[in-house]
Design brief:
The protein is α+β, with helices and mostly antiparallel strands. It has three domains: 142 residues, Jelly Rolls (Sandwich), CATH 2.60.120; 47 residues; 55 residues, Homeodomain-like (Arc Repressor Mutant, subunit A). Helix content is 47%, strand content 16%. It is built from eleven helices and nine strands. A hairpin with a 2-residue loop joins strand 4 and strand 5. It is globular and about 70 Å long. The chain starts with 6 loop residues before the first strand and ends in a 6-residue tail after the last helix.
Length: 285
C-alpha cells in the first residue's frame, strides 16, 4: 500500500532468506528507507555495511547497490519516496556535475530524533486515513536527515505581513470547505502560493498547529455538530466528515473531546459541563 503526493510512503517486507544470492540492483527514485527490523548487508559507493533496526538507506536515482543476507533474512523497512523538487528545498540542490545526487552518503546510523519520526510515521501509516500527516512526517524526516548530513533546509526570514496571512487564510479556507475529502500538502501549499516546506513553517507559525492537526480538528468539529443536531448513525458521520475508518474516528474523537462519540451524544449539557469541570479543574492562586 502506498500514499501518493509529495511523499509516497509504503512498507517492504523482504521475502529473501538467509544466504540468498546477491544480485546487483539500482535505485530508481529518491527515497529514504528506514529499517524497522532484521539485519542485512548493504553495499554501495561507500563500501559494505551491516544495517539493522534504526538505520536509514539514502537513495539517489541511478545509484547502484547490493543487498546481502549473510546473517538472516526477512528484514522489514518503511520507505519514503520523495518528489525531487520538495526534497531539494530540504537538503539543497545536488552538487554541480552530479545531477540528482541529493544524498552524499548512502547510509545513516540510528539517530533518536529520526527514529521518533519513523515510529510516528508507522503509526500514521497503520491508521491509513491521513496522507497529509504522512507527508508532513516524511518532509520532517528528510529535513532532519539533511541536518544530520550537514545540509540543513534554508530558513527564510519570517515575514509578518498581510501577504503571509492571506496565504495561510487561503489554505484555511480550503480546509474548512473541503475537510471531508483527502487533502494533499501540495494542494494546500499551491493555494497558499508557497513551497511545501515553507508553507508548513508559515502555517504553524500563524495558526499554532500543523495543517494535518487543523484538518483533524475541523473534522471533529463537524462531527460534534452532526452528533448534536442529527440522529444519524455514528458510522455515517465518521465517513461524511472525512474519516476513512470508524475505529480511527472513535479514537481521534475520544482523544480530542475526552469521550467517544456515542457518549457525547447521550450526555446532557449539564452533565457534560460537570464532567468537563472535573477533567479540567479551575486553577487557583
Amino acid at each position: 500500500m502506498a500514499h501518493a503526493g509529495l511523499v509516497r510512503v509504503f512498507t517492504y517486507d523482504c521475502p529473501l532468506a538467509k544466504g540468498a544470492p546477491v544480485e546487483p540492483e539500482q535505485f530508481t527514485h529518491t527515497s529514504i528507507s528506514m529499517v524497522r527490523s532484521g539485519v542485512f548487508g548493504f553495499r554501495s559507493d561507500g563500501g559494505p555495511q551491516l544495517l539493522t533496526t534504526g538505520f536509514a538507506m539514502l537513495a539517489n536515482p541511478g545509484q547502484p547497490y547490493e543487498i546481502s543476507h549473510e546473517h538472516a533474512g526477512g528484514d522489514r523497512c518503511i520507505i519514503f519516496r520523495f518528489d525531487e523538487a520538495a526534497l531539494e528545498e530540504l537538503v539543497g540542490s545536488p552538487p554541480r556535475g552530479a545531477p540528482r545526487r541529493y544524498f552524499a552518503r548512502a547510509v545513516l546510523p540510528p539517530v533518536p530524533r529520526i527514529e521518533a519520526l519513523r515510529h510516528l510515521a508507522e503509526r500514521q501509516f497503520a491508521a491509513g486515513d491521513s496522507p497529509l500527516a504522512l507527508e508532513e512526517l516524511g518532509l520532517a524526516l528528510a529535513a532532519n536527515i539533511g541536518v544530520s548530513l550537514g545540509r540543513a533546509p534554508k530558513q527564510p526570514k519570517p515575514q509578518d505581513n498581510r501577504a503571509t496571512r492571506d496565504s495561510v487564510y487561503a489554505a484555511l479556507h480550503l480546509i474548512e470547505h473541503a475537510s471531508d475529502r483527502e487533502l494533499r500538502l501540495d494542494e494546500l501549499a499551491g493555494v497558499a502560493g508557497l513551497s511545501p516546506f515553507h508553507f508548513l513553517r508559515v502555517f504553524k507559525r500563524e495558526t499554532g498547529v500543523t495543517p494535518h492537526r487543523f484538518l483533524t480538528q475541523t473534522r471533529v468539529r463537524r462531527a460534534l455538530e452532526l452528533l448534536r443536531d442529527t440522529s444519524r448513525p455514528v458510522t455515517d458521520i465518521a465517513f461524511d466528515v472525512g474519516f476513512g475508518d470508524l475505529s480511527n474516528f472513535i479514537n481521534t474523537f475520544r482523544r480530542e473531546v475526552g469521550a467517544p462519540p456515542a457518549r457525547f451524544r447521550t450526555t446532557s449539557p449539564r452533565d457534560w459541563a460537570a464532567r468537563s469541570r472535573t477533567a479540567h479543574p479551575t486553577a487557583r492562586d
